[in-house]
Amino acid sequence: MRKTRLVGCVTAILVLGLAASACSKSDSGSSSSTSEKTSTTAASAGAAPSDSSITALTAKLAGGGASFPDAFYQAVNADFNKIAGSELVTYAKSGSSDGRKQLAASTVDFAGSDSLPKPEETFKGPILYFPTVAAPITVSYNVAGLKDLQLSPDTIAKMFQGEITSWDDAAIKADNPGATLPAQKVVVVHRSDGSGTTSNFTKFLVAASPAAWKLGSGDTVNWPASTQGAEKNSGVAALIGQTAGAVGYVDLADSVKAKLSIALIKNANGEFIAPSAAGVQAALAAAEIKPDLTYNPLNAAGEGAYPITAPTWILVYETQTDAAKATSLRTYLQYMLTTGQKQAGSLGYASLPTDLATKAYDQVEKIKG
Question: What angle do CA 213, 35, 199 make, to 5 degrees?
Answer without folding.
Answer: 30
